[in-house]
Amino acid sequence: MEDRSPSSETITFLGTGGARFMMINQFLASGGLWLNLSGTEILIDPGPGCIVQSTKRNLKADQLSAIILSHRHLDHSGDTNIMVEAMTQSGMKRHGYLFAPADALGTEPVIFSYLKKYLDGIKVLKEGKSYSIGNISFTTPVRHIHLVETYGMVFSTGKHTFSYIADTRYFDGLRQHYGGELLIINLVFLEPRPAADYPSSMPIDHLSVPDVERLIRALKPKAAILTHFGMSVWRANPQQIALKLTEKTGVKVIAARDGMRFDLAELDMDS
Ligand SMILES: [Zn+2]
Q1: Can you tell me the distance from the alpha carbon of 18 to that of 255, in angstroms, rounded to the nearest whole number?
Q2: H-helix or E-strand containing 56?
Q3: Ligand 1 centre and the CA of 146: distance in Å?
Q4: Residue list, CB under 5 A from ion ligand 1
């Protein structure tokens, strides 16, 4: 059983693997992020295996208030249906919201129609908008450069602020929009992949290690957590990458591990 106080604020990493080869091989899990913010529980990007990773860690889906999808790609949305089923106890406990960009809900929606009826509602994420879930608020400040409609989020809990930079190619707007004490960044590539070198159908719109360094230097969070590692990052050892980034930027950079739980109170202890 959990021994957390009701006022604690934690982020549990139900997976740290990203992009297609990590997902299909499950070298790292791909279950997304589970927030528990003073009792308000929110699931972000439930990729394949979320139901396995969450139940095995005794996280209770029927305690969730919302599920948020940054975008429709399979590694972020694969377990959406089963997690809505679990959140609502197969419709017995009708509640909760699904937040997703419009193109995740249009043609080939990520959610089955019978499950929509189990929810309190579906909210469409749009650029520059604010949303609230209980006493938690978040914004989706800028549309990312990615193959499908994608947003990151800036959360405010009253006690802490943190940003989640979901999949995107690097662009300067990221530095203007993602503040907060903690930065969670999806790091897929070791090296940048110039668009000119690849066919347009290749999924290369992702952040690389130099991009992440640039973001951390500009945004100066108290801490940064790297996750959603692609093959090249995984092979290079995310822990070593985080160590080097810590030395180079002076910001505490952590490479997430599957199942890691980060307590936002740690942000209050440093400096
Ligand atoms: Zn993606």
Answers
A1: 13
A2: helix 50-56
A3: 7
A4: 73, 167
